[in-house]
Design brief:
Length: 146
């Protein structure tokens, strides 16, 4: 389970240095991952086992279902398989690095079964300040006993 956040870097070759906090859990099953996005504003790094479960769930929809088709197109467009090297670096797809502004300093967030990689400024603007916590959020989680 991925929790918390860590600062990291994407080097000039487009490799993300996976923070040690997440690397052990990420490598638990193997060193193969799927990196993608649904909007191009940040990257999602999935252990291959988790990504394969998503693909299996998606196959429950007809192949030409508009949502399935849209999801497959966009995640294939931004997506790529990857492996961690000996230093724990993972190559991010060039199209996604450009779209999400993933160069230099980035923030890596644990999101239960996958990691999110954000341009640190974009994360603050869009998610922390631009999507402020509200009473509806409190109510939704309260209904879950949280």
């Amino acid at each position: 389970m991925f929790r918390g956040h860590q600062s990291s870097t994407v080097d000039a070759k487009g490799r993300l240095k996976v923070p040690a906090l997440f690397l052990g859990e990420l490598r638990k099953d193997n060193d193969e991952f799927y990196i993608t996005s649904t909007k191009g504003d940040y990257a999602r790094l999935y252990p291959m086992k988790v990504w394969q479960a998503i693909e299996e769930s998606l196959m429950k929809l007809p192949s030409q279902h508009p949502t399935r088709r849209k999801f497959q197109v966009v995640t294939s467009f931004y997506g790529s398989t990857a492996k961690a090297d000996a230093q724990g670096r993972v190559l991010l797809p060039a199209i996604l690095r450009e779209s999400a502004g993933l160069t230099g300093e980035v923030t890596v967030l644990g999101n239960q079964n996958y990691l999110e990689i954000w341009n640190s400024g974009r994360l603050m603007d869009q998610q922390i300040h631009g999507n402020a916590w509200n009473s509806s959020d409190d109510e939704t989680l309260g209904n879950l006993g949280i």
